[in-house]
Specification:
Length: 247
Amino acid sequence: MKSKLTFLFLTVLLIGCNNKNSLSFEPLSVQTEACENCTSVQIDIPKATGKTKLSATINSALEGEIIALLNFDEESNAKNLEEAKDAFLNDHEVLSNKFLEESIPWEASVEGSISFENDELITIKLASYIFTGGAHGYGTNRFLNFDKLKGIELYQENLFNNLKDFTLFAESQFRQQENIPANHSINSTGFMFENELFYLPSNIGYNENGLLLFYEPYEIASFADGPITLTIPYKEANPFLKYPKKP
C-alpha cells in the first residue's frame, strides 16, 4: 500500500512539474466604436489564462506597458486598458477644445504577439503606432521577456551571464553589420550614441532567428532612419545568455 501511495505522489509531483510552465492565451481586444474622423484606439493582445503567478505577471506587464504608451499627458491615473483608452480620448478632447482650428483625430493601435517561447522563457512583442498630431505618428516595437518557471518578468540585466561581456560582443557585431571600422568612433558613420560609446538598446527580445536588439527611432539615429535592429543568431548569442536557446 505504501509503495502505491509513493508512486501516486511521485506521479502527481511529476505532472505538477510538467504543468508548471504550461501557458495558454485567449485574445483580448479593447477598442473605440467605429466613427469617421474620430480619435480611435485599437488594442489586440494575447491574455494569459489561468490563475497562476506567470499569467498574472504577463497580463500585468502587458497592461502596464500599454497604459504607458497611451499616457499622453503623463498624469493619467488609468488602472486598466479601458481606463487608458478613455484617458487617451479625454486628452484629445481637452487639447482639441484649446486649439479648435488645429484639431485632428488621434490614433493609437497596439498589437501583441508571441515572438518566442520554449520551456523556460516566453517573449511577447507589442507593435504599436501612436499619432497625436504633428508631422507624423510614432511606431515602435516593445519586447517583454518572462521566466516561465519562476513566473517573473525579465529585465536586461536578467538575460545575460555577464552584461559587460555581452555588450562588448554586441558592439563588435553592430560594427560588422553597419561597416564601422574597429579603430573608428562608433558614431563615425553617422550614428548618435551618447558620449560616442556603444550601448545596448532598451528593447531586447527573443525571436525564432536569434536575439533581437531593437533601437527605437531617435535612440541612436534620426527619426528618418527608422528603427535600427541587430539580430544575433543563437549559436553566437547562447554563450552569453542565462536562457540559451536549446537545439
